[in-house]
Structures are given as structure tokens and as C-alpha cells.
Amino acid sequence: EATSVQIGVSVGKALRDERQRRRFSLRDVAERARVSVATVHAAEAGVHTPVATRIRITEALGPDLSLEVG
User: Fold this and answer.
1) What is the pTM of this model?
2) Could you tell me which residues come within 8 angstroms of residue 28 by beta carbon, excluding any fewer than 6 positions away?
3) Which of 7, 18, 42, 54 could bond 47 through an S-S bridge, CB–CB 3.0 to 4.6 Å?
């Protein structure tokens, strides 16, 4: 069974992969999500980030987002 740390890292990697696929910079996503670049970077690195913040980052990546975590 995956730990919360492993899940955080998997979600972070999926966010980063999707951001890069869409050719968004960290700053692009941060501005769209109204968070700091450091916050986006931390979320992508798997650092504990509040769920509400991850949702904002996810929404900033676009309405048709589909993350593959695993």
C-alpha cells in the first residue's frame, strides 16, 4: 500500500509531466493558480502541499486535465 509520501511524489511528478507537456513554465502555472513559483515547484517535488493548493494548480493546467498517477 502506498504511503502518503509516495502518493505526493507520484502526484507531483504527474503535475510536472503535464505542465511540461503543455509547455507551461512554473511561472505560467503559478500566475494562473495565484500561488508562488516556489509553491508550484514544491507541489511538483512531492512536498506536502494543501489539497486546495494542488487543486488550484491542477485547474491552472487546464479544464481537460487527466493525470496518470502510479
Assistant:
1) 0.83
2) none
3) 42
